[in-house]
Amino acid sequence: MNHTSVITNCQNCGNILTNNYCSNCGEKKFDNHELTVKHFFSETLESFFHFDNRFFRSLKLLITKPGQLSLNFAEGRRVSFMKPLQLFLVLNICLFFAPENPFSLPLYNYITYKPFTTFGAKEVIADKINKSKISLKEYSIQFDEKIKSASKEFIFIYIPFYAFVFFLLFFFKKRSLAEHIVFACHFMSAYILLTILNTFLLDLPFYYFSKLNYSQVFDNIDTLCLQVVLLFYLFIAIRNFYKTSIVWSLISAASVSLTFILILQYYRMFLFYKIVHLG
Predict the structure, then answer these.
(1) Overall average pLDDT of the 131-140 stretch
(2) Is the CB of residue 204 less than 8 Å from the CB of residue 99?
(3) Of all residues in the chain, what percent carry a pLDDT higher than 70?
(4) Which of 154, 172, 152, 186 is nearest to 74 (CA)?
(5) Cβ partners under 8 Å of residue 181, min gap 6
(6) Three-state SS string across the chain, please?
(7) Model confidence pLDDT, tens digit, residues 88-118
(8) Residue 160: per-residue pLDDT
(9) Confidence at 3, pLDDT banded by 50, 70, 90
(10) Does residue 115 have a cis peptide bond before it, meaning omega lies within 30 degrees of 0?
(11) Which of 68, 151, 173, 262 could form a disulfide with 104 if both were Cys (CB 3.0 to 4.6 A apart)?
């Protein structure tokens, strides 16, 4: 008796399927039974918890073993963790829901506190309001909305910038540019995570109990503490990933962490002038 096998083609690329997944594009074999409400919610929950596990597993390794997440990715151990840029994006979203965001300051900060007033931000805004014929309150609302959007767009420039910095610092290690980008992604992810933790563990409790709106002294101490933590974190991460000497690791970590706040201030002023002059 003759048996005729049914030839099934991939719905995505048209390639002949020999098993449940296409050998050409990886698309799963289509099944009408998947078009049910039960399957839809089951698949959604599975995807969510798979994402959830990889996300928290990545966060744990990012904090407890600096540099190991980058090393795992470079050596091919990737399936259990989020991809570097994906982790950065998720943490970036979390940051913009946090009460404080170092990349997106309100207009009030620019026209009230140093170092922004030193750069003439107050005078620039006064001139802008005078020409626009609107009140400071109205322009503040416009500015604050725009800077939230702009900071999300331009925060990505940190990754190629620091990838180039790490390339210069560790060119003798002969790592590819992609590996430096991976390390830069994880460095920025760690900074964002430390910023979020700092906000909830230090900033909010201090201002809640002190009843102050702002304290220059506390802000300076807070910034210094964050720099020290960042330096210590980078030192360990560099040692683990680049396998450099203690001296060079310390010099590199100090160079990056001590200049990070300075670069952040220039980034803030860049956003300020971009919004004021270009909208």
Answers:
(1) 87
(2) yes
(3) 86
(4) 186
(5) 84, 159, 160, 163
(6) CCCCCCCCECCCCCCECCCCECCCCCCECCCHHHCCHHHHHHHHHHHHHHHHHHHHHHHHHHHHCCCHHHHHHHCCCCCCCCCHHHHHHHHHHHHCCCCCCCCCCCHHHHCCCCCCCCCCHHHHHHHHHHHHCCCHHHHHHHHHHHHHHHHHHHHHHHHHHHHHHHHHHCHHHCCCHHHHHHHHHHHHHHHHHHHHHHHHHHHHHHHHHHCCCCCHHHHHHHHHHHHHHHHHHHHHHHHHHHCCCHHHHHHHHHHHHHHHHHHHHHHHHHHHHHHHHHC
(7) 988 988 888 888 888 888 898 888 888 888 8
(8) 93
(9) very low
(10) yes
(11) 151
Q: Of 136, 111, 146, 106, which Cα lies nearest the Cα of 276?
A: 146
Mean pLDDT over residues 223-250, rounded?
A: 94
| 258 has pLDDT over 70 | yes
Q: How many residues are listed for the chain in this entry?
A: 279
- What tokens were used for 210? 């002190």
